[in-house]
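Q: I have two molecules that I believe assemble together. Could you output structure tokens for the complex as a whole instead of separate predictions?
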Amino acid sequence: MTAIDVRNLSIDLGYSSAKKRILGDVCFSVEAGESFGLVGESGSGKSTILRCIARLLNLWEGDIQLEGRSVNDMPFVEYCRAVQMVFQDPYGSLHPRQSIRTALQEPLRIHRMDRQVERMERALIDVGLDPAFLSRFPHELSGGQRQRVAIARALILEPRILLLDEPTSALDVSVQAEVLNLLADLRAKRNLTYLFVSHDLAVIDHMCERLAVMQHGRVVEVMSRDVLATGQAKDPYARELIQASLEYDHAV
Amino acid sequence: MAAQSLDMQDVAMNGTRSNPNSAFRRLLAVIRELLGNPSSGFGLVVITILVLTAIVAPLIAPYDPNVINLGNTLKPPSAEHWFGTDELGRDIMSRIIYGTRISLTIITIVSVIVGPIGLLVGTTAGYFGGWYDTIMMRITDIFLSFPSLILSLAFVAALGAGLENAIIAIGLTTWPPIARLARAETLTFRGADYISASRMQGASALRIIIKSIMPMCLPSVLVRITLSMATVILTAAGLGFLGLGAQPPLPEWGAMIATGRRYMLDNWWLVAFPGGAILLVSLAFNLLGDGLRDALDPKQR
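A: Yes, here they are, computed for all two components at once.
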């Protein structure tokens, strides 16, 4: 089954002569249980696509289907239970004045879920944190711990699709690996579908089976992970990007 | 000191479900910080004295504030009447002591009216944006374009003279700057990831405003209300002075100055003591507001 199907997604900003195309006819689809990467340079529109799927942007044209249904036709409550997002900056994605307990309990209250305390403790244990963290505030946690809380918050509604907007780029390298392994474990355990945005090809290589390379708001090539090792991309830009990344890895 | 108080919070919160205890401790920490600074400490002490005076007014006032003694008019300050007596022989000190109750009533009611209105208008305008924002902010602009005393005068003239109407009029002129402030704060938070996250979890706009945005605006709004209390006291005194606020024989400070004005040249104590009280209290609120801004505003740290 197709979990995410994006067809001809475009965004234009401005009017008539000042009209500027931000995203142009983006098409890709992600199978259920698959992890799909979006890579590209800064400003290429990766995060914008994610925000469209997340319904945080509404000015797009085209069609986004989740599990065979158009996102705009889905009731919002149902949508929230199906899709959640993990943001890039763990310092900005947790409310600075809410305890972890409040952050985790809010979605449970909104969706009137049962066994709330049990679910909150379970959610923290699943991301490798002690349930005692419930009474902490975000400023008392490290970046990696915050990102774990953000992941716990996203998973507490038991979504089937997780949108990940560069979830590790704001973290220290050693913590990055921990969080990536956590995400990989969670996917295996819960059979989640990931849409993973990153500019780090090594991260994508580790996390995703397939990926799309983006440039200037367009998908230039959709390829499987194997291509990353060989560097045999069809599109010249994609080839250049992979080559640059390989050289960088060697240099490091 | 901040780190220490955080540790204390942590200890206090561990294991408990809700955390009223930590809120209390945070309040204590704020009070300690206010007292640590001489100017805000002065403000806090004066306002505490004001509140205590208002509570125990009948116990500490040496005379009844409204008893007329025509054989004892316009007496200068003496051991018997510390602040002298007025044109009807009433003890000025007792009247000032009872006047604290009126000032506190005005301040309390005005902040209870103004805080929620300003917060609600500002946060909703900032969060929703669009035409709603435009309409709300133009209304705010209209209120802001009048000097507050003139606008209060207009309201009191329309509603009729009296303390209650003066309070309503002052309330109507004090909310716009708070709404502006709350809107500006909201605009800086509304694009934040934690608001997006909350929206993705299915939170309604009302829930986001109340649970996520209002707590972020509250400290600066609180500071702004404290700072505008000085203006409120002055406006109330001004209305009293013009005969549109508290009516005689209520011992309102502005009204006391108004009636004392006629005897001012020969009997300075009739206006000096109520005037001094107004000065002291509005100064105290200003200093406290400044101190609160340093203690509460997260951006200052």
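A: One point stands out. Chain B has twelve helices and no strands.
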